[in-house]
Design a protein that fits this description.
The chain has about 325 residues and is α+β, with helices and mostly antiparallel strands. It folds into 2 domains: about 210 residues, no CATH class; about 60 residues. The chain has 13 helices and 4 strands. A 4-stranded mixed β-sheet has the order 1-2-4-3, sandwiched between helices. A hairpin with a 2-residue loop joins strand 3 and strand 4. Helix 10 runs antiparallel to helix 13. The chain is globular, with a radius of gyration of 25 Å.
Length: about 325
């Protein structure tokens, strides 16, 4: 038997880039553009020829408020334009400050209520922190916190200036320490969150541009934003697969679906037989609608992508 190939950060990162969802970067660019385009169109409607401002000026002239003074009309348009520009810049600064406050509040909550993973506390998890950080080329190991959340199964990655961190609900890792001694599943979950850090999904500047589409009511908020989010989730699932040598991805999906106590008893092949069977119109439509505005791909599609031996990009619709 040949010796197991030693993985290097370069080889791991190359494989991760090759598996990234093909739609993620194009959707990021589109989301970054369509919001400003929408604002430009709104500006044209307001300030362009026959726009609202032009109509206001015409109304003022017809009411003989300006009489024969074109200077007043020019002053009015200039004043509105300057006021709108200052307002837009101020609003952006306000959003940045508000976002930073929320980032720091989240980090402060982890420090206040969570237990930081270390060589003494949860050493098996800390070993994975060191391993994944090295493989992903992180200059600084992310901090990992464990906090009980009243039974909720969840994990997330976040950031504050100069620091990345991962939050693990205690209910997630109970399966490792109390019940199944299942390090593979917890490694996949951590690998998924480390994937968000690797692709900088948590950074303020990334989220600023990614969320510009939310300026557009309904279409941006309910369609384009979730569409990009689903592509990102597929991408970081692939990161987790690479970091864990394609172990336990499907089982992790069963953990999310069935819960930490019984997920080991779910037959994945039987589950996928229902996912892959020919579905009637009502079943297809129900899954389509559920997935359409979801921030994460629905579990059948996500599991199917994880089990795909060719590692194709997962379905977004």
């Amino acid at each position: 038997m040949s010796e197991q190939t030693v993985r290097t950060p370069e080889s791991v990162q190359k494989e991760i880039r090759n598996r990234r969802h093909k739609a993620e970067l194009p959707l990021f660019v589109i989301n970054s553009i369509i919001g400003p385009v929408f604002l430009c169109i709104a500006g044209i409607v307001l300030f362009g020829e026959y726009g609202i401002v032009d109509l206001i000026k015409e109304g003022l002239e017809n009411a003989e408020i300006t009489e024969t003074s074109p200077e007043f009309s020019a002053f009015l348009i200039g004043f509105i334009a300057v006021f709108a520009s200052i307002g837009a810049i101020g609003f952006v600064c306000y959003l940045i400050i508000l976002s930073l406050i929320e980032y720091y509040k989240g980090y402060a909550s982890n420090m206040a209520y969570g237990i930081r993973v270390s060589e003494e506390n949860f050493p098996e998890i800390y070993a994975k922190v060191k391993e994944f950080s090295k493989l992903l080329g992180f200059k600084k190991e992310p901090e990992v916190y464990v906090e009980q959340m009243n039974g909720t199964i969840n994990a997330y990655a976040s950031w504050v200036p100069g620091k990345d961190y991962v939050h693990l609900n205690a209910e997630v890792i109970e399966l490792l320490y109390l019940e199944h001694k299942d390090l593979d599943t917890i490694s996949f979950i951590m690998g998924h969150e480390f994937g968000h850090l690797y692709y900088k999904h948590t950074k303020l500047h990334y989220n600023f541009f990614a969320n510009l589409a939310n300026i557009i009511p309904i279409f941006g908020q309910k369609f384009m934003g979730p569409l990009l989010q689903r592509a990102r989730e597929y991408s970081v699932d692939r990161v987790a697969q690479v970091l864990t040598d394609d172990k336990c991805g499907a089982e992790t999906m069963m953990f999310i679906s069935a819960g930490r106590h019984v997920y080991k008893y779910v037959n994945v092949d039987n589950y996928m037989s229902y996912v892959n069977k020919d579905k009637n119109f009502i079943e297809k439509f129900a899954r389509f609608v559920t997935n359409l505005t979801a921030s994460h791909p629905i579990n059948p599609l996500r599991t199917k992508a994880i089990l795909d031996p060719t590692h194709k990009s997962g379905r977004l619709f």
